[in-house]
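Example record

The entry below shows one chain as it appears in the dataset: sequence first, then structure tokens.
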Amino acid sequence: MILFERTAPRWIIFLIDIFICLFALIIAYFLRFNFAAIPQVEINTFSVVFPFVIGIRALSFILARTYKGIVRYTSSKDAQRIFIVTTLASLFFAVSNLVRYYAFTKTFFVPYSIIVIEYMTTTFLMISLRLIFKSIYFEWKNPSRTKTSVIIFGAGESGIITKRTLDRDAGMKYKVLAFIDDNEKKWGSKLEGITIYGFNKLDELLRDGNVAHMIISVQNIPAKRKEEIVEMCLKYNTKILNVPPVSSWINGELSFKQIKKVRIEDLLERNPIKLDLENIKQHTLDKIVLVTGAAGSIGSEIVRQLSKFNPKKLILVDSAESPLYEMENELKNIFHLRSFEIVIADVKNKDRMESIFSKYSPQIIYHAAAYKHVPMMEFHPTEAVQTNIFGTKIMADLAVKYHVEKFVMVSTDKAVNPTNVMGASKRIAEMYVQSLNKESHTKFVTTRFGNVLGSNGSVIELFHQQIERGGPITVTHPDITRFFMTIPEACQLVLEAGAMGKGGEIFVFDMGQSVKIADLAKKMIQLAGLTLGKDIQIAYTGLRPGEKLFEELLATKENTLPTHNPQILVGKVREYPHKEVSEKVDVLISLLQNQDSSAIVKKMKEIVPEFKSANSIYEELDKTYA
């Protein structure tokens, strides 16, 4: 049909609108006089009334450019514009009537009933005819029987917006089959002509409806419910999409292109953390806060979180030039933060770090700078000691010297019963920091947590890349498990623990249930719409150097104490005298000059007796202590 394939010239749309106005005016007269003979007195005014009404309507259309929109893509904004234009023109008619009556002839120019009927008819016809043409166009372009069925979870405001967005942006491809909602009061009702069902009907709808997409529109859906939805959808090969937070909508309006596939990261999230925001605010308000590793995954998120609590100044320290530059732009353009300083420096450079302390006099330090990659550090123990231990020692000693109020160290679950150099280096750093607490006025606090989703080098990121390349996905062992936490969640808990810490504590975060990595890979394959064994394979490569099957947050001889936040526990960890730890650390650091990896690791095992290497060349050293 040529009518649908070409865009009509704007002047034709304009003339059709004028014809609608003329038709509406004639209909108004007929309705006003019950389709009987129109009085002669009214007919006598036609020569003035008709040009006046049609002229004002035409002028208003030209000024508002109502004829510029493409009819087959008529949106709610187009309808809104027409409504406003016709309303203003009709108000002008009403005011003109009053002026004529009181200033001139004591008679109305146009009967008010005519004005009202003409206004309602014009508005209705101009909007409805556009929508009818749009519906006919989309039905012709893609008949209903060929459209893809979609289910929307959430029959609230977000669900309505999602449906309208779908109708506007992708109505020619998709049709909404049903709404699903947990509110029993809505079940059986209709929303914009679509029936609302309970979650108990989802299995039946997916089985019988040949549903291509499930769109989760609820903004704060409980993690358990989201997981249930995903599991059921994967069972029927239905793709799951997520409506992004309102804050990320473009100009406050949702676009279909913004509705993205559910990621594995979304499924590993837990219910929102309840933080003591007031305590965190009081802890950081008007304080000079220094963050090391500020361009890394954890450090950068700590900076983002801190920016919400109005510190006096944020000092961002990192040796990575480009990521630090990107962080600077983000703070300026997104967070509109002005009270911050970017400092390119290495925590291993004592003189450089001392100059920073001297210049800025930080009151609170979040020490996130560290090497965290297990296999890499297994092959480069000198670097692990240099950064994770010596760098931490420099920062902690300077914190004491410059009377820093609080020093918060970011540690890892790999420090518990370490089986690798990286974990052992972090445990030694923990011991040094904790031992300093009783020797100074600075409060030293340590936080421990497991793997974070989306961090640099994380297994999730690796799997994403491997899936994009077509596989295989490499998993080290069929039974390997890990704890996971989102970066924002981990950093929020770091701030909370830092604010509540009195000094000397090692805070342990509730990481939830451990996840089998092989199951994680299988679910990511399903979410990508692929079939394991057909489209992509999983290859088991064997445990990497220093890697263990199961990770712990506390050593076996340790226990924990609760805090006011159920997701933060205090680990009861053995404390060591500062003099003893300091002497051992100094000896370890002195070994760096010879670059003898074996001697360095041997000394680390002396300092941390529970350090037993796994899948590593350093397993030989453990026989010495057997």
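Notes for this example: The first helix runs from residue 2 to 5. The radius of gyration is 34 Å.
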